[in-house]
Amino acid sequence: MDQLLIRGGRALHGEVAIAGAKNAALPELCAALLSAEPLTLANVPRLQDVATMRKLLAHMGVQAERLDDDRCPAGECWRLDAAELPRPEAPYELVKTMRAAILALGPLLARCGRARVSLPGGCAIGSRPVDQHIKGLQAMGATIRVEHGYIEAEAPAGGRLKGARITTDMVTVTGTENLMMAATLAEGTTVLENAALEPEVTDLAELLIAMGARITGHGTHRITIEGVAALHAPAQPHRIIPDRIEAGTFLCAVAATGGEVRLRGARAGHLEAVIEKLAEAGVAVEALGTPGTPDEALQVRSPGAAGLKAVGFRTREYPAFPTDMQAQFMAMDCVAAGTAVITETIFENRYMHVNELLRLGAAIEIDGHTAVVRGGARLSGATVMATDLRASASLVIAGLVAEGTTRVDRIYHLDRGYDRMEAKLRALGADIERVKAGAATEDLA
Ligand SMILES: CC(=O)N[C@H]1[C@@H](OP(=O)(O)OP(=O)(O)OC[C@H]2O[C@@H](n3ccc(=O)[nH]c3=O)[C@H](O)[C@@H]2O)O[C@H](CO)[C@@H](O)[C@@H]1O
Ligand SMILES: C=C(OP(=O)(O)O)C(=O)O
């Protein structure tokens, strides 16, 4: 099992390319299931979750081919052909490593009239039920049974879902995506109320429109989808939007270590709440290039821990502060001056990194959904364990500022959502390497 070995104390300088967004790539790979014609995606990030999703699609019968495309230096270009779908099912073995496999449910049901998808179960950050996905598909006429850990779904007689008005009990990102994809091939009009506003939902809607779907209102809380009989190959490869959470993670890393870095491809428009909080902390972030184009970039400059102020926030749905940035900001707050109050409102158990940060010398108290971070900690390297994707990223940030050597164990969590983070950080001047568990290091405490 791989680990990261970090010798802290170096400022970061230079340029880093931001990859395509994991949370856009995963639903967009599933969108290939909706059409018998091929779909080409560009700027596909090289991530473990993306590999798992390709494996899942291959299991269903999708042929995937990697194309050479020098337009995506930070990613890959993939052509997905779902002409035949002999096995419209997602087995537990794949779903247990990647919850986003639930995104196959809506497209499979809409295209094949039936689907069998393993229930994802809980995960480290919370129970994460999918009841809203199921409720929405039932409103569209599907018969759904949960048996032996699987969601067994069938479209109404005739094989086509029916348009419906669906109001989800809460704003759900993959719920909105699943129902929007299912509705593209339904008979009649679907209205999704309380829809998610996340840029990844909007990017998916734009891809579906390019495939011939009739969607309006994406980017608002009411999305209207007029079902069509079939979707087609888009005229152009669809370029996946840059990963705002990878960009945000690098912003926090530079904020904590100090230095100056250009984040190529990062979109300021997707990171407003994060950039505002960084400004409050004393970090300068400047938007460069033309908004919405690949030449967009962010330039971040930070005085380092000694010049930072700890900042509090509440995690909320987009466009407010993202839960996927909570752990990384907490790591930065640990070394900044003052006290920060953080409230996590999206997931009930997303403080798994706190005990590991405490092992590095942080001062944090948890009371229910609230964490009080007393800044100004002098972190010192230790062996810590990654428990989930963003918890891993926060431990890397803490390791970059800690005195001595930090060993981050179980980084398969990190590899789910970051493309060779250690290589990118090393290119910026960090002292970080990937080692096999058990590898000897003389400077480990
Ligand atoms: C692959 C992907 O895009 N993952 C993102 C997506 O996860 P995901 O789409 O799973 O998260 P949701 O937006 O659905 O979850 C929001 C809240 O609603 C609850 N809920 C959701 C659906 C449901 O049927 N029932 C229910 O109770 C969840 O438990 C959670 O408390 O959005 C999260 C919130 O921004 C991010 O942290 C994840 O990175
Ligand atoms: C929670 C996350 O992802 P997932 O929904 O895929 O678990 C994340 O990206 O931080």
Automatic annotation (TrEMBL):
Cell wall formation. Adds enolpyruvyl to UDP-N-acetylglucosamine. The gene is murA. Its EC number is 2.5.1.7. HAMAP family: MurA. This is UDP-N-acetylglucosamine 1-carboxyvinyltransferase. The active site is at 123 (proton donor). GO terms for biological process: cell division; cell wall organization; peptidoglycan biosynthetic process; regulation of cell shape; UDP-N-acetylgalactosamine biosynthetic process. Gene3D superfamilies: Enolpyruvate transferase domain. Phosphoenolpyruvate binds at residues 22-23. One of its GO terms (cellular component) is cytoplasm. PANTHER family: UDP-N-ACETYLGLUCOSAMINE 1-CARBOXYVINYLTRANSFERASE (PTHR43783).
